Amino acid sequence: MTFARIHGWLRAHPLAGDAALAGVVLVCMVVGSFADPHGSNGPVFGTRTPSVTALVLAVLGAVSLALRRRNPLAVLGLTGGVTVADLLAGNSPAPIAIAPVVALYTVAAHTDRATTYRVGITTMGVLTATAMVFGDAPWYAQENVAVLAWTGLAATAGDAVRSRRAIVESIRERAERAERTREEEARRRVAEERLRIARDLHDVVAHHIALVNVQAGVAAHVMDKRPDQAKEALAHVREASRSALNELRATVGLLRQSGDPEAPTEPAPGLALLDDLLGGFRRAGLPVELAALDPAVRAGLPAAVDLAAYRVIQEALTNVRKHAGPNARAEVSVVRVGPNAEVTVIDNGTGPGDGATGGDGGGHGLLGMRERVSALGGTCTAGPRYGGGFRVQAILPLKAADTARTAEARKAAEAVRAAEGPGEGCV
Fold first, then answer.
1. What pLDDT is recorded for position 39?
2. How far apart are CA 234 and CA 227, in angstroms?
3. Are strands 340-347 and 390-397 parallel, antiparallel or unpaired?
4. d(CA 116, CA 108)
5. Could you tell me if 293 and 325 are in contact, meaning their C-beta atoms sit under 8 angstroms apart?
6. Separation of CA 25 from chain center
7. How far is the CA of 206 from the CAs of 174, 279, 343, in angstroms?
8. Pick from 81, 129, 267, 349: most CB atoms within 10 A?
9. Is 381 helix (H, G, I), strand (E, B) or coil?
10. What single string gives the DSSP state of each residue in 295-359?
11. Whole-number average pLDDT of the chain
12. Sign of torsion over alpha carbons 63, 65, 69, 74
């Protein structure tokens, strides 16, 4: 813990750390200046006194190291020049060479590899050649070899430290990118879920409220003259409102947290409830005929495709009832065409608005159908029929659910590897 605190403080105050390093280097150079490296049994202290010039050059070289991170190349040039000057004066290269060794390490650690090679080779060559030619020891003395070895080691160590920092930074960047990707994916999924719930709410409300509105109007119209028919209309109102409440409860229940009570358990509506759906429209006064219903399609649709087919039929018939006129009739068919399920709703409406784009609907129903079908990889078209009326058709791939899961798995895999966009559309 103590070492970690010291390391953190030095990272926060780099100039103080460099100043301390400069003081340590100065002490080493001054102490080394008093040692005679040519003793009979190795270096001997107390038999040699450095000159004032040597001490001034040592102080200048050490002090410049305090600025090594601000301008590494300039500090290397200054310490190298001080070392050359000291060698030209005939002094031993060992003490004064400490400063350019530290400076060369800093250059290698804070620049690129090409600069390290150029500057390192130049520094090694100049200092070693100067020590061999102008030093007071023979050219093959160990002090001269030490200059070559220490400068080469400094350049190598600095380059290794720079490479390690680059690797660590790359790993950190990939981790941050992966975290951002996960957050963006989570936001995208939330937005898609909100859009899906909004479509479901629109379909439920538009369908059932339209039926309630029609039956309530009938009840009000015949209340005085035919009370029995008014009671029947009110019964339909009660049934439609109860169905709306049940579907709203199931849809809004998706927003519950996992620990909330009374989570909905009933399945989502599908083609299994198609007869009930068509019966509700017939009771509301819209003659609807089920022209074709492929039993294999009805029994074998994936859940997402089954729900989409049901919602398309529900929304299309709701629009027919609202906008196609009082004498409109509708026809529904669900058949299999190759690998797709084809859902078609046609009408013969002649009202002021066609069967799908009434003026008070705002176009949200058709937009919801298009988005619902497109999310499954299908296509949705809507437009006037030749000879009158309107036609809505949705092509739903029967493998849409598996395709969607495969796409999600592929996106997840790509995110993990990164850590180490004819016919008139429904508008």
1. 60
2. 10
3. antiparallel
4. 5
5. no
6. 48
7. 47, 17, 20
8. 349
9. strand
10. HHHHHH--HHHHHHHHHHHHHHHHHHHHHS-TT--EEEEEEEETTEEEEEEEE---SSS-SS--T
11. 77
12. positive
Token match 């198609």: residue? 274
Of 306, 310, 201, give the one whose Cα is nearest residue 245: 201
DSSP 47: S
Q: Residue 288: phi, psi to the nearest 5?
A: -125, 130
| Helix (H), strand (E) at residue 7 | helix 2-12
**Gap between the Cα atoms of 356 and 346, Å rounded:** 10
Cβ atoms of 322 and 282 within 8 Å: the answer is: no
Tokens 């029929």 sit on residue: 385
> Where does residue 266 fall: left (phi above 0), alpha (psi -120 to 50 degrees), or beta otherwise?
beta
Read off the pTM.
0.45
Q: Say how far apart CA 172 and CA 394 lie, in whole Å.
A: 47
The rounded distance, in Å, linking the Cα atoms of 139 and 145 is 9
Q: Which neighbouring-strand residues pair with 343?
A: 334, 394
For the chain, residues with pLDDT lower than 50 are 260-261, 263-265, 353-362, 401-403, 405-406, 408-409, 412-413, 415-427
Bridge partner list, 396 = 341
What single string gives the DSSP state of each residue in 250-276? HHHGGGS-TT-SS---SPPP-GGGHHH
Instruction: Retrieve residue 293's tokens.
Output: 């219903």
Q: Retrieve residue 416's tokens.
A: 């993990």
Sign of dihedral through CA atoms 54, 60, 65, 70?
A: negative
C-alpha 380 chain-centroid distance: 30
Report the b/e string of 166-182 with b at 16+ CB within 10 A.
eeeeeeeeeeeebeebe
Query: How far apart, in whole angstroms, are the C-alpha atoms of residue 181 and residue 176?
Result: 8
Give the count of beta carbons closer than 10 Å to the beta carbon of residue 292. 13
Instruction: State the residue for tokens 């023979």.
Output: 138
Max Cα–Cα distance, the chain, nearest Å: 134
pLDDT for residue 93: 63
